Amino acid sequence: MAVLSVTNLSVVKRDRLLFENLNFAVKQGGLLYVKGQNGAGKTSMLRVLAGLVAADSGEVYFSQQNIQDCRENYHQNLVYFGHKLGINQTLSAVENLQFWCKQHLVSISVDTIYDTLAQLNLVGLEDIPVANLSAGQQRRVALARFWFKRDAKLWILDEPFTALDTQGIDLLSNQITQFLSGGGAVVMTSHQALRIDYPTDELTLEYRI
Amino acid sequence: MAILKRDLALAYRQRAELMQPMLFFILVISLFPLAVGPEPKTLQLIGPGVIWVAAILSSLLGLERLFRDDFQDGSLEQLMLSSTSLPAAALVKVLVHWLTSILPLIILSPLLALFLHLSEPMYWALLKTLLLGTPLLSLIGAIAVGLTVGLNRGGVLLALLLLPVFIPLLIFATSAVESASMQLQYTAQLAIIGAMFLFSLALAPFAIAYALRVSQT
Amino acid sequence: MWKWLHPYAKTERTYHLCQKLLPWFSLLGLAVILVATVWGLAFAPMDYQQSEAYRIIYVHVPSAVLSKSLYSAMAIAAFVGLVWQVKTSFMAMMALAPVGATVTFVSLITGAAWGKPMWGTWWEWDARLTSQLILLFLFLGVISLYKAFEDKQQAGKAAGVMAIVGVINLPIIHYSVQWWNTLHQGASIMKFDKPSMPPEMLWPLLLSILGWALVSGAIFLLRMQNEILQRELKRPWVVALANKSAASSEGK
Q: Where does the chain cross the membrane (chain C) (predicted)?
């Protein structure tokens, strides 16, 4: 069954048509890898898929329901990871994640948060303001969400591997593979070649003038 | 609720930044006696207007940070993708903003009333108008902040958008204080300000939520 | 409502509609203004109280009347755009805004010029002049908000929200300024009771209001076409249109 399907999607940004009449579907356990040059509209497309921005025409469906009509249900089953991390610089890693979990109705104990941060190689950095962490470390903090919300049905990741070291890339790739084998669906972009050992669908966006 | 706790904690950690509009408020008001002379009568005459204008200007300074950090670091995106309803979240954020950057101004106001030689009935009227009117500033202001948060140079634009909108509030509030100075009733003015406040309380959260969605484009 | 609007959500149709309406508005408008102005300035009787100076009302009143209607029209366009997601509606809003701002500005200038012989000063904090001034600020706010965004679609929505906030506020401003004005009376405001205007004066006034409305409409249509072309510069129908007009001008 298709987790996410898209019909006749067109997006215009700054009076420039990024793409039009796009149709595709992502099934349970399916991985869609969106490729394209800079400026081809990958990020814009992911934001439309996540429901952050309305498309100019066309529909996005989550489990056969228009996402406009099932916003709450959709967002409960979605993890979106964008260019902006959604991590407050003044708060510590643990505070940030606790707040995120509360907001997204994920009940998780503080111990689990510490454990996950340890898995992500952030021991000793849990309680200092995030501003003191390096770019890669901050990304790891944000990525911890994928450890908390494994029961989601769809993950959308926009350039998740940027600023991560090889070990971080492996950690995340493993996590994605596990999620996929558990029946989750993933849509992602990446400029690095994917190091995920899993059947992948590709979608290439052309740059238009 | 989680937002309330988080934002209050954040405000506490950024208290140095919160102090700035407050200092600005005091400074602007102390400029007036220096500019027009320390004559108590003159000061009493312009006092209510000066305090209100200064309150509006310094609330504009503080407003900018209402959604700025959350927009820039992406917390706003995550908020929109969460189960929290956006209008409710916006309302909580406005409440925190009012508590942390406007309420201190009101607490300071007796001191400033002293500076400007306001009489006691005038001060009580001023306090009432401030308590009823400043939440209105925060609510309406938040709509414009939501709209301009994506622009990196929103500051002056914010003033340009909001000052004309705040004019009725300024007129009613200062006229209430003026009536008080003449020992007259000012319930009418308070009632109007109260009505405007309730009206904006009902509608502004939705407008703010819409504005924030627009800013995501 | 939606059924009626829907065809004009397409920019191309709106463009051609503007094209068709434009000559009517512009020619008729100019003709009416010409008649009204000549009538008002040369033939209408002189006012016994204000002598010849009153004749500025043939410019002042139409601009003052129109400024508020244009703001309302702009807010209605914004509302339609926000509720029904009509793109052309935002274009209409932004085509209206500068026209409205200009008209408001004209009403302020003429109001001040009228004030000089009447009140003996260029600027009097009269209730109507003050509300016009605030209206001008509201117009300028909406325009500058629109200009501040690079993405014009986003700009339209943002400016639309502000236009609606303004239009809700407009009656409150009007009322509050009047209140404020009566409170601070005692300045040198000359209160002249408006005697009901004799028809010889009224007719040219009504005509000039109509003329101004038509000309504003014409300017709006032109701006609307311009806006559509600019926004859709790369769409096939615009390219075809440009080629056609280039070909016809070469043919001459």
A: 21-44, 64-84, 96-115, 127-146, 158-181, 201-222
